[in-house]
Amino acid sequence: MKKIVLSLLFLSYIMLSGCVKILNDELKTKETKLVLNAAITPDSVFTVNVSHTSNIFEDESADNLPFIDSAKVLLFEGDNLLYQLQNTGYGFYSNPGFYPQTGKQYKVTVSYGTYHDIESVASIPPKVPIVSLDTSSVFTTDEYGNNITNFFGEITYNDPPGVANYYQLSCVLYNYYNDSLVYVDPQSSVWPTDENERFFDSQSGSSLLWSDKLTDGKQVTFKFIFLYAYYGYNKMATDDKQTYKFEFHLKSITKSYFTYLKSLGVYWETGGSDNPFSEPVVIYSNVDNGYGILGAYNSDTISVSYTVSTGEGEGGKP
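^ that's the sequence the OP posted. Answer follows.
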């Protein structure tokens, strides 16, 4: 059995979604196929990435990455052709002035050389607003005298009744440097608490995934953990402090994107490509004649800031 692995670098940052395509599939032929990856949202320019499958043993050095920069990539709204997307390098294609709209159906087709043409369709679901977000921090000292701060959140939203809804909660972490915000971690992790772990379908990468199968039409409140353990050493006081901004995104996502992220979570839980003894995991794809995902989401965002000590003192104490 051959493992086919394609890691699309840079997608998690540029597409805000961790769009990394990994293929573990017992292919009946050695045919190389096109791969399409995108996560579209009304908040960002319509952008997709095009590449091709590659064997795990092939050279994936910087000079041999499988991105394709000369494909014909067409964007349709319904059956109407909108644009031929323009290549911007590293397999990315976009139209700089076009932002997709909620509720509209978009189709992307890709043609390149002797490969089979591929296509995929997606519609952006409505936004589900955050009703409230409360945060707290718990400061403790471990047996070695190290200071530890755990951060907790409690989020509330109203699930739209009568339709299937799928959700993703993610967090972006910034700090303030010379009065300007800079990235610390574009995908800072969030975790369930022990008492509500079964509520979630998956923790995919750094985010939480769940559906409304048990909460259709209800107001939902749950707790979660973020920046799980911020450590500081010894107990001496310090004036060295750092302010962090946590930006939480409650995303309403399509069923296909949910299924893709869930399957990706299973892949990482089984050890990914680093575990040669793991059972093959088929990563979900909604691309006809090829591989990848055309996902879609709508996001409501809320942020909080914390100032913590960072020196060899009460590091981690708000």
